[in-house]
Amino acid sequence: MSKKGRVLMAMSGGIDSSVAAILLLEQGYELIGVTMKTWDYDSSGGAGKETGCCSLDSINDARHLAVKLGFPHYIIDIRGEFQEKIIDNFIGEYMIGRTPNPCVLCNTFIKWEALLKRADDLDCDFIATGHYAQINQQDGRFYVSKGLDGGKDQAYVLWGISQENLARTLFPLGTYHKSEIRDLARQHGFERLAGKSESYEICFIPDNDYRGFLKRKVEGLEEKVDGGDYVTSDGRIVGKHKGFPFYTIGQRKGLEIAMGEPYYVNNIDPETNRVVIGPREELLSQAMLVGKLSFQKMDHITDGMEVSVQIRHHDPGTDALVFNHAPGVLRVEFKKPVSAITPGQSAVIFQGDNLIAGGFIIKKID
Asked: Is residue 49 part of a domain?
């Protein structure tokens, strides 16, 4: 075994995990590659070409790179775990009027828990992924810091990883820009990888049509929810919608209703099958509650702590004060109004580039 240790490298077949593997080999680690089979394309029910990290092409790309670089590669079947933890949750959240965050759950319950279980089976000291983020340590605690490339930074989706799991994680790409990663792929003879396009869809909805996915997965869904009311914030009924699970907070396109000015979804009530719409200013709020917390750099929040909070991926963050509201629940008070606070999405708390804590948005407070 290498003096630096043995690493289980999560390989999607894409450029990021592939170059991460190259970098670790150059640093002297011993690698075992693994590609996770999380879902079946046919079972998604979508139309079009098979894409994404579970496609046969992607699996073959990962295996080809491992063979060329001289380390073993395995495929592990975690479709059962993925169905239970990710897909069932995704469907369930929409059915109670929330907008789920499958990438966060996947990182917490699949990419880390499942990988570390297999890492132990294969006597690996660490796991590694191609995320653009960094891991640091202070006062005995491990925490994620933002990646150097602000346009690719993925710290937002990593708030749920436990201290135990962070201690065994490597992020080789955290100090690189994406352009440098493409250059490294070319320098090592992987020209096809360097030019490979990236997918931004939810991996188990490759056609990016989550409404169609819900219709296929929930028997009789349209009959259950079709024909609910659009209402304004003062309760006035202004039209009929196609079913509350098909809408998200902040949505403007696809409402199919003329109000004389742009209207947006600002609340969803699954009990009454009502979708509340209004002008843009009604999306604004300066406070919210956050629960199901995970702490990283610190093990608690001090009332009145000054932080920056992201409420969606690629959100630049908004300055805020945080307070302990109830056991396991934080109150976030933004210093300026933010738009489209969405229950079910992640709220991630930073000081500078360092991840303090994260959780799921419970509700906005007007």
From this structure: yes
Task: Give the model's pLDDT for residue 44.
Answer: 52
Cβ atoms 355, 317 nearer than 8 A: no
Total of domains in the chain: 3
Among 53, 103, 106, 124, the active-site one is 106
Taking alpha carbons only, the member of 325, 342, 348 closest to residue 285 is 342
pLDDT of residue 48: 46
Structure tokens at 212: 């169609």
Catalytic residue at 106? yes
Q: What CATH number is attached to the domain comprising 104? A: 3.40.50.620
In this prediction, the residues of the chain whose per-residue pLDDT falls under 70 are: 1, 41-55, 198-201
In terms of domains, do 117 and 230 share one?
no
Instruction: Write out 254-280 in H/E/C secondary structure.
Output: CCCCCCCCCCEEEEEECCCCEEEEECH
| 203 is an active site residue | yes
Query: Of these residues, 54, 103, 124, 203, which one is catalytic?
Result: 203
14-53: per-residue pLDDT in tens?
Answer: 999 999 999 999 999 999 999 998 887 555 555 444 445 5
Do 89 and 124 fall into the same domain?
yes
* Residue 362, number of CB atoms within 10 A of its CB: 19
Residue 136 domain-assigned (yes or no): no
363 contacts: CB under 8 Å, gap ≥ 6: 288, 289, 343
DSSP 114: H
- Would you state the structure tokens that stand for residue 362, as one six-digit string? 């419970």
Q: Encoding tokens for residue 169? A: 């994680």
**Which residues constitute the domain of residue 339?**
285-365
